[in-house]
Amino acid sequence: MSMKVSTRQVDGVTILDLSGRITLGEGSVTVRDTVRDLLAKGQKQILLNLADINYIDSSGIGELVSAFTTVKNAGGELKLLNLTKKVQDLLQITKLYTVFDVRDDEATAVSSFTK
Amino acid sequence: MADSTTSRVSYTLDSTLDSVNKIEQTAEQYAQRAGFDEEAIPYIAMAVREAAVNAVLHGNAYDMGKHITASFETTSNDLVIRITDQGPGLDPSTLPDPLAPENILRGSGRGIFLIRSFMDEVNFRKLHPGTELTLIKHRTPAKSGT
C-alpha cells in the first residue's frame, strides 16, 4: 500500500523514481519530506518519475501541486515524467495537466531543465 | 454472500486512515459484484475513498470519540454508498471551486470535486451532528439483471 522512492542524479537533475500509491498518510508525506530535503541540499531541479505510481488521490494531487509551487518559489523547477493513464486523466480532470511540465522521455526531460 | 442485486452491508468504524482503507477496499468489492468494468471500478473506489477521507479528516478530525459509518447497497439499478461522520457538518455550497484560477495551485480542496466527477449522483444531508454523503453510480443496463 505504501510508496517507495529512490533518488538518482542525471546531468545535474535529481530524478525521483516513485512507486506505489501517493495518498493521504502514505506517499504524500514522503513526497513532501523528500522534496524538502532536496531543496535544503540545494538540489532544485527535480524530475518526478511517476511510471510506477498506480494510484493517487486528492491528497496526492495536492502534494504534487505543493511540491511544484515550493520548488518554484525556491527558484527551482519540478517536472513530471511518465504518467500512467490514470494519473494523466486525474490531472486533466483537475485542469493541472497544463500547470505541470509533463514529459514522457527521460533524456529529453533532463535536457529541458535550465542549465 | 448475499445476492449482488439486493445486498447491503453497514460498518461503524473508528476515525482512522485504516478505516478509510477498509472502506475503499469494500467499495472496490461491491463495484466488482455490481458488474462495473475494470475501467470504472478504480474511480468508484477513489470517490468512496475521498468521501471516507472527508469524514475522518474534515468531519471527525481524527477524534477517536467519534465514529464514521459506511453502508454499501446494490440495487437493481444502482450502487449506493453512504458515508456519515459526527463532525460539525459540511455545507457543500461553501466549498471553493478547485478549477478556478485562484484555486488551481491550492494543495487541497479537490476531494468533493473528484467524487462528483466519478459518481452519477452525490447528495449531502445534514445530521445532528454530522454529515451524510450519499454516492450513487448507475449500473449499466446490460449488467443490471446479473
Question: What topology emerges from the helices and strands here?
Answer:
The complex is a heterodimer of chains A (115) and B (146).
Chain A: E1 4-10, E2 13-22, H1 27-40, E3 45-56, H2 58-73, E4 77-81, H3 85-93, E5 102-103, H4 106-111
Parallel strand pairs in A: 2-3, 3-4, 4-5
Antiparallel strand pairs in A: 1-2
Helix pairs in contact in A: 1-2
Chain B: E1 8-14, H1 17-33, H2 41-59, E2 67-74, E3 78-84, H3 111-118, E4 121-126, E5 131-138
Antiparallel strand pairs in B: 1-2, 2-3, 3-5, 4-5
Helix pairs in contact in B: 1-2, 2-3
Structure commentary:
Chain A has helices at residues 27-40, 58-73, 85-93, 106-111; strands spanning 4-10, 13-22, 45-56, 77-81, 102-103. Chain A has 115 residues and is of the alpha/beta class. In chain A, strands 1-2-3-4-5 form a five-stranded mixed sheet. In chain A, strand 3 (45-56), helix 2 and strand 4 (77-81) form a beta-alpha-beta unit. In chain A, helix 1 (27-40) runs parallel beside helix 2 (58-73). The termini of chain A are far apart. By secondary structure, chain B is an alpha+beta fold. Chain B has a single domain (8-138), classed as Histidine kinase-like ATPase, C-terminal domain (Heat Shock Protein 90, 2-Layer Sandwich). Chain B contains three helices and five strands. Chain B has helices spanning 17-33, 41-59, 111-118, and strands at 8-14, 67-74, 78-84, 121-126, 131-138. In chain B, helix 1 packs antiparallel against helix 2 and helix 2 (41-59) packs antiparallel against helix 3 (111-118). The two termini of chain B are 15 Å apart. The A-B interface holds A 1, 23-25, 55, 57-59, 61-63, 65-66, 68-69, 86, 90, 93-96, 99 and B 17, 20-21, 42, 46, 49-50, 53, 57, 98-99, 104-111, 113-114, 117.
